[in-house]
Amino acid sequence: MIRRKKTKSVKVGHVIIGSSAPVVIQSMTKVPTVEIDRCVRQVNRLVRAGCRLVRIAVPTRADTAAFAKIVPKVNVPLIADVHFSPERAIEAIEAGAAKLRLNPGNIKNPKSILRIIDAAKIHNTAVRIGVNEASIRDLKKQDVPIKKRTALMLMEMKKYVRLFEKSNFDQLVLSAKSSDVSRTIEINRKIAETFDYPIHLGLTHAGLPEDAQIPSAVALGTLLAEGIGDTIRVSAAGNPVIETQIAKQILIALGLYKRTKPELIVCPTCARAQIDITRLAKQVEKALLSIDKAVRVAVMGCVVNGPGEAADADLAVCAAKNKGYIYRKGRKISTVPESKIIPALMKELKKL
Ligand code: SF4
Description:
Elements: E1 9-12, E2 15-18, E3 24-28, H1 36-49, E4 53-57, H2 61-70, E5 78-81, H3 86-94, E6 99-102, H4 110-122, E7 126-132, H5 146-166, E8 172-177, H6 181-194, E9 200-201, H7 209-225, E10 231-232, H8 240-253, E11 263-266, H9 277-288, E12 296-300, H10 306-309, E13 315-320, E14 323-328, E15 331-337, H11 341-351
Parallel strand pairs: 3-4, 3-10, 4-5, 5-6, 6-7, 7-8, 9-10, 11-12, 12-13
Antiparallel strand pairs: 1-2, 13-14, 14-15
Helix pairs in contact: 1-2, 1-8, 2-3, 3-4, 5-6, 6-7, 7-8
The structure holds iron/sulfur cluster.
């Protein structure tokens, strides 16, 4: 069991980040913010997929005006993503942002930051300080060693945090991102050592979903396994629902997210497989879509190793030539012809 590092508790609308609260999945809308109905639909899709916070970019005044109209139409706290403009930050706070994302690399003027802090205090808006490796001028060169990179990012974070702390503002979430897995792990370890604010984990511009999922799982999974990280966002090009699904898989793999749907286990298959396991597994996967139970179902290719390897599954089918042996919690309960495997599994699932 993972022991999470104890952090402060930060309130983002009705969602708590940090302390003993479960790790929060968040994602970002990818349609123009001014297209209010499309934006609302995407927010709702993300919530259905498992997001408990959704971030929306507000690059222009028209976007913050649209943001104000989106807030009352959704049931999830919204985060405003702000770059460069203190005005946008203040407008977003006044528009009802439950949290603001600021990048120290592009809002630097202490007076502007103090104005944002004052507005955030009045409106109970939390703030994420998101240090981004690509926004730090000295880190744009390829050959800067990892130790120096980490030290520079940490210094940038400390400077910014100090400004908030001087103003007695502690509703902070911290993030430090890079597109490199090792550097992301290193800087977040340092941040966890240095501060007790909750940490937002993510990799920047990770790629298309098929390319993004492994680096994200390695970086975020390593940190989460060490107890670091209170909210996560997987970045991938395209549909943000896929980002959310990847984030959920990472948390489920670490036991940090309660599964509500069946888990399908499939043997890798080898020369002992007696039937087309991939085809059977796809059929089982499709049949399981209608089941809302956190059960483990195993599809195994033979009775040599299948029963043993599927012993901890609630239900398993181990294939033999033209037939399948059905197991419930490691005990064989029936033998059915290949064509009857799916109905037999479904019948047993209903009984569980
Ligand atoms: S369960 Fe059987 S078919 Fe599948 S990988 Fe193991 S030995 Fe091979």
